[in-house]
Amino acid sequence: MRSPMRALAPLSVVFILLTGCGADTEPAAPAPASAGPVALTNCGTPVTIAKPPQRAVTMNQSATEIMLALGLQDRMIGTAYLDDQVLPDYAAAYAKVPVLAKEYPSKEKLLEAEPDFVYASFNSAFSDEGVGDRADWQNLGVGTYISPAGCPKDTRPEKLAIDDVFGEIREVAAVFGVPERAETLTTAQRDRIAKAAANVKAAKVLWWDGGSDAPSVGACCGGPAMIMTAAGVTNAFADLDGSWGDTSWETVTERNPDVIVLIDATWDPADKKRAFLEKHATLKDLPAVKAKKYVVIPFSSTSAGVRNVLAVEALAGALR
Amino acid sequence: MLAAGLVLSVGAAVTVGPADLSMGTVWSVVAAHTGLAESTVPLLRDHIVWELRLPRVIAAAVVGAGLAVVGAVLQTVTRNPLADPYLLGVSSGASLGAVGVIVLGLGAGVAALAGGAFLGALAAFALVLLIAGWRGTLRPTRVVLAGVAIAQLCAALTSFVIIWAADPHATQSITFWLSGSMARADWTALAWAGVALGVALVVILWHARALNAFAFGEEAAAALGIAVGRVRWVLLVVAALLTAVLVAVSGAIGFVGLILPHAARFVTGPDHRRLLPVVALAGAIFLIWVDTAARTVFEPRELPAGVLTAVIGVPAFVILLSRGRDAAR
After folding, report:
1. Fold of B2-328
2. Which residues of A touch B181 (CB under 8 A)?
3. ipTM value of the model?
4. What is the separation of C-alpha A131 from the centre of its chain, rounded to a whole number of angstroms?
5. The overall pTM is greater than 0.90
6. What's the gap in Å between the CA of A2 and the closest CA on chain B?
7. CA B26 to CA B54: how far, in whole Å?
8. Given an 8 Å threshold on Cβ–Cβ distance, is B176 in contact with A266?
């Protein structure tokens, strides 16, 4: 059964798998002898990891970068679905890990990689558009973890805070038996945020994620709100439910923000957003637009992960 | 009476919105722009009224009127009570065009989107005409079937393009667009829609008597001296062109073009010389209020108007239906 399937599989994959195993020459981080089973509740699902995973697959940018930030690239056998280029600090480590798919891999593709742990930033990774139901993977003995910020709505933190992100980093580090690395990483990040947010001027911020008919803006309780809170600024749409919400330009005009965050994404670049604002019959006269009070933040910095600190620094830096 | 209702609706809807503006503010802005008074209102508030609300309210009236009239015409011409403005494949063609523009990155701007939608609508309609009118006259059944087939094809291609190429993040703006919304209406869009509606109304009203004859069937119409084939071509083309412009402005807003003609017939009877003006005004007033609800009910959140048309329209229609039955008894 096994060999004909291998023969049918794309040659490139076989090649990557072989080199992936063969190139494992760097000294693997020694798992602490004390690393026993780790039990945690993730998105309301009990997850037990008997021993630190050796064949992890990550999906989505944040999950991949948290793993790389923890120096766990030698435990990774595959990644998938970036929104942006990997941070320069981790580019060398990332280059050694095979990319299974541009977006989510199919279930079959992931099975072929034979992972022992699958870590994703968004619940959608374990849906039909992704690799299929999480429970199926657990039943196969494959550990799973979803970023708490990306859990289904009923098990997501009600109001996402930067501590939830640090909590995620700690849990992942615990699963891999390297808790001390999480402490180093989160302490450094916490210090950077505290430094950035010191002496920030009070400002009302419009977080414009996308959409030109009904602008989609940062709302009360998701990544955007978390970053605005950490930077010590006021969210102009803190009264909208959810992480993002559709509003109207009329409401934006009435609330008259001091600063506008333009989210930069390949599918909706900040340049286009700026051009739209400056051409729009009404919005061109907003004081923030006239004075070009923009802060450009890449979309990849807004989902919970190690990049949030970059967004906080960008936002706070513009308001000092 | 309906005309007065329309003027009142525009006047009232302009004063309602997520921004808290007094009626006095709103009317002094309108007075300032129409040269009746000096403006005393701060610039941003002036913009809210003159650039955001007024064109949108009037555009809602134009789109509502257009969709309702096109629906009434198509129901008669195709002798199909289920006909609506999107019967001719126009809306699904427009969706495909708009999605194509977004996904191919030809521009996310309003003009690019509307342009893609318009071209898609025209292409779909041309295909329908080609299929239905191939070697022969445009028989109603063939038009309906060709329209349904092309609509299915375009819908499948739209799903394909979204799943294949679009980033999940881009689908959010696509979904909002496909649901139908007046949010992108500005003076330019309004000018396009207004001219299209004006021209189409003239042509359609010109054929009001012919439409009455159509209601009795083609033979009857022919016997009354109407060039059935030619009139049908003219009306179908005018209906499709107007719908293409409206869809480009507002996305596919359902319900208005299907149900309002029936509702209007309860009131006016089948004579198109009365029915058409009434259905146009009713459509205009209906969409103004639906759009006002879409902008304000869940403020500061905005809903696509297309989501609300049926939610608000169906109960109203059920009431009309039951009254109509009582009257017929």
Report:
1. ABC transporter involved in vitamin B12 uptake, BtuC (1.10.3470)
2. 213-214
3. 0.75
4. 18
5. no
6. 31
7. 10
8. no
